[in-house]
């Protein structure tokens, strides 16, 4: 009978699997300690050999049982690792699909959000443009209304100013006393060459033509002197006996003046002057305020009802040649 082979500790093979690393194996149960190696004793006797065979069989069976258990355990571990790897792969694939779906959903959502944002921005821009246009229309209408109101206010102010002006003018006119009537100019006191006195209105005789017309009119009925007066053969003297020339008459004449008429010297009459002097008896002296005398050279005083004898002034006697006295005297006065 062969000697029994000494027992050796079980061999633990390293785990190996597929492409994925296995998780660490759970700790193996503690193995029974190997029996110490001893030097075989000297061959036993026959009785002792049978005992040894039985003991060896038991050890071999124990070894085989341990190995089978180890293989079973390694197979379970490998199967669990493979299942775990398959589950991890499935989970990864599912996660990838979920990620792709999430990315697609995110892209779609982002695109939708972008579209909504663009639509909102477009609506916002359109609304802003509409609001700006409406605001501009409102501003234009407000400006037009303000301009119209301003024009209306200006018209009202102008009308009020005009009314106030008219009212003030009316009040001033009512408060202002009427101007006093213009004082009538005093008449010119005129004494003609034959001693008559007249009051000529100043507004008529303030010009030379008016004065000349009145003097000619006064001598219409004086036969002998009328032609000389019509020819302007006379001078007019002012209050201080100064001669007033026709060219300056309008510049120097004043209301209320006393103006005296002086005839120019009449040429000497031809021979037979006594007959002319006798004819002077028919000359009528017209006094101021009396009507023209009747034929016959007599003047009737209507106030006293009696006749007056006509008087021949010295000047007329001188012009008739009755007397030389007074020749050269411009006024016909006594020296």
Summed up:
The protein is an alpha+beta fold and 335 residues long.
Attribute tags:
335 residues; alpha+beta; four-stranded mixed sheet; 50% helix
Description:
Mean pLDDT is 75; it is low at 273-310 and 314-335. The strands form 2 sheets. This protein has a 4-stranded mixed beta sheet with strand order 2-1-4-3. Strands 5-6 form a two-stranded antiparallel ribbon. It starts with 45 loop residues before the first helix and ends in a 15-residue tail after the last helix. It is rod-shaped. It is α+β, with helices and mostly antiparallel strands. The chain contains 7 helices and 6 strands.
The sequence of SSEs as H and E is HEEHHHEHEHEEH
Q: Please, how many helices?
A: 7
Rg, Cα atoms, Å? 85 Å
Summarize the amount of helix as a percent range: 40-55%
Estimate the strand proportion. 5-15%
Write the layout of secondary structure elements.
Layout: H1 46-175, E1 188-191, E2 197-200, H2 202-205, H3 208-218, H4 226-230, E3 234-237, H5 249-252, E4 258-263, H6 273-279, E5 299-301, E6 306-308, H7 314-320
Parallel strand pairs: 1-4
Antiparallel strand pairs: 1-2, 3-4, 5-6
């Amino acid at each position: 009978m062969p000697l029994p082979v000494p027992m050796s500790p079980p061999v633990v093979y390293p785990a190996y699997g597929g492409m994925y690393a296995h998780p660490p194996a759970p700790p193996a149960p503690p193995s029974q300690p190997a029996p110490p190696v001893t030097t075989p004793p000297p061959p036993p006797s026959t009785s002792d050999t049978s005992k040894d065979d039985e003991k060896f069989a038991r050890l071999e069976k124990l070894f085989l049982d341990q190995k089978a258990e180890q293989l079973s355990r390694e197979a379970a571990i490998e199967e669990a690792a493979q299942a775990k790897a398959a589950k991890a792969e499935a989970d990864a694939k599912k996660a990838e699909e979920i990620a792709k779906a999430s990315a697609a959903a995110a892209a779609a959502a982002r695109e939708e959000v972008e579209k909504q944002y663009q639509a909102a921005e477009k609506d916002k821009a359109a609304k802003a443009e509409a609001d700006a246009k409406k605001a501009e229309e409102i501003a234009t209408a407000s400006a037009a209304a303000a301009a119209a109101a301003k024009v209306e206010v200006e018209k009202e102010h102008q009308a009020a100013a005009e009314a106030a002006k008219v009212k003030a003018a009316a009040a001033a006119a009512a408060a202002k006393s009427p101007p006093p009537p213009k004082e009538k100019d005093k008449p010119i006191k005129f004494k003609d060459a034959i001693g008559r006195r007249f009051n000529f209105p100043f507004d008529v005789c303030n010009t030379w033509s008016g004065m000349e017309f009145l003097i000619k009119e006064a001598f219409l009925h004086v036969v002998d002197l009328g032609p000389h007066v019509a020819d302007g053969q006379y001078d007019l003297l002012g209050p201080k006996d100064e001669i007033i020339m026709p060219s300056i008459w309008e510049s120097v004449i004043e209301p209320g003046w006393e103006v005296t008429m002086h005839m120019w010297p009449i040429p000497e009459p031809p021979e037979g002057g006594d007959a002319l002097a006798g004819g002077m008896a028919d000359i009528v002296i017209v006094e101021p305020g009396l009507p023209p005398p009747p034929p016959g050279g007599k003047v009737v005083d209507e106030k006293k009802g009696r006749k007056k004898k006509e008087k021949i002034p010295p000047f007329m006697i001188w012009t008739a040649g009755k007397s030389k006295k007074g020749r050269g005297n411009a006024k016909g006065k006594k020296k």
